[in-house]
Amino acid sequence: MSFDRSIKIAPSILSADFADFGREIRAIEAQGADWVHVDVMDGHFVPNLTFGPPAVKAFRPHVKTFMDVHLMIAPVDPYIDAYAEAGADMITAHVEAGPHIHRTLQAIKATGKMAGVSLNPGTPAEAIADVLDLCDMVLVMTVNPGFGGQKFIHSGVEKTRKIRQMIGDRPIHIQIDGGVTPETAPLVAAAGADVLVAGSAVFKGGSVGNPDVYGKNMRAIRAAAEGARKDAA
Ligand code: DX5
Ligand code: ZN
Hints:
Strand order of the largest sheet: 1-8-7-6-5-4-3-2
Number of domains: 1
CATH architecture: Alpha-Beta Barrel
Distance between the termini: 26 Å
Structural class: alpha/beta
CATH topology: TIM Barrel
Bound molecules: D-xylitol-5-phosphate, zinc ion
Number of helices: 8
């Protein structure tokens, strides 16, 4: 995948109909999703449980764009190969999942997949300074991970600005996850984010039978983010 900093919308299928993932994925892609974001939770690192590698493998044939797998699990290292084999294009691990984020990112890279590092709202930007060269993406969490539909935590905006500076001209994406809406997207887009994850703000009001709403919701987020980029330029 070639690198650019254009705004990309990555719907989180955590907000999709859990009985109909194949059709949900096809619907969001047909409506303009750039990436598909898969939230993996273990009931230990975060207080919720979602998708094991067989589920991710089942999603794979439906994803024609880019499958972005966000691992909210600890330990993470024993599962990297399984999620790579399941067909992830990018695997993101949390710096807080421990114990050795550098080793974890090396292990992701060794699978041939792209590697992301994620920071919770309570973790400062500096925590990833020494692993940036192992990363294709930094994920700034703007909610505490575990659930969709939470309120955006504003300290992520300044953190995004800092990380954008730390990255300089290196080809590293900045992704925002949590509480992204047409109201909050402009704040992070102006601060330097390019990949916007959104669950509830994409799926609300729509369904596989009424997918135009997904398209409308994504266009509202994208237009707000791109507008803020123009204003900041
Ligand atoms: C939170 C997940 C998010 C979540 C976003 O733990 O990582 O991807 O689904 O949901 P919204 O957009 O509803 O905040
Ligand atoms: Zn996520």
